[in-house]
Amino acid sequence: MKRNRLGASELMVGEIGLGCMSLGTDRQHAISMIHGALERGVNFLDTADLYDEGLNEEIVGSAIQGRNRGEIIIATKVGNRRIPGKEGWVWDASKAYILSAVKESLRRLRTDYIDLYQLHGGTLEDPIDETIEAFEQLKREGVIRYYGISSIRPNVIREYTNRSSIISVMSQYSLLDRRPEEEVLPWLAEHSISMIARGPVAKGILSNRGRRLQENYLDYTGESISSLFPKLLDSANVNGRNLSQLAIRYVLSNPAVAVTIPGASSLEQLLENIAVAEAPPLRDEEIILLQKLTRSNRYEQHR
């Protein structure tokens, strides 16, 4: 599998990673999925303390035991704090909380360090300097190697780019969500920061099975997606790819994208995603055609 440098860091990530959120709560099943991914060249595992109230981190921690830790890049996230005895969570980007939460993530992941620690959201109203101080302190202490943010907000992404040493931004990006192309991807490329692209198959819509075709997705109605679907299928089939491969390859065609993290809840989905590594990159004319078929969405908020 091709590996790309994540930002200006020393982390070399396989272009297809594993988004662990969709693995579920069956430990045996989830661990076998992670092992299957690692054995097929995946080296980037993305989780978060929020997923299944920490259970997802625990599963990842169990799955990596007995393996060469130096060959696995673990990314997790912080910022969503659960209050004992209450449902839901509150947003907390304070330095005190980040320094506390990382200890629990390390415990659940059963590791001494986190390769990439990400702020799981963020707004301009956050104590941004304080948040950055927390990540920088953890870097100095060797608790984390690098940090980034998970955000779709251009204004927040610009602030962290200008004021911190983030190496990556995780954002939703697909043929049905091309918003990052407007200003985020060019901005990241200019600042040598990589995008970690989540949602490349748009909740399964961009797969040969075409799940949830009748549902709305961003500014697409179910009707417009149903009309677009056969055109995308034809484009994929003409070039010997399936639709998932076409969709993921489109996301990876942008030079600012270092890794994409399609989720998988079954071995079939996992193998289909990883097979993209063997599919040839899109040609320029294919990219142009796909951009003509789909919409150049725009961010209407948080500009």
TrEMBL record:
It holds the Pfam family Aldo_ket_red. Gene3D superfamilies: NADP-dependent oxidoreductase domain. Residues 15-293 form the NADP-dependent oxidoreductase domain. It comes from the Bacteria. InterPro entries: AKR2_Oxidoreductase, NAD(P)_OxRdtase_dom_sf, NADP_OxRdtase_dom. This is Aldo/keto reductase.
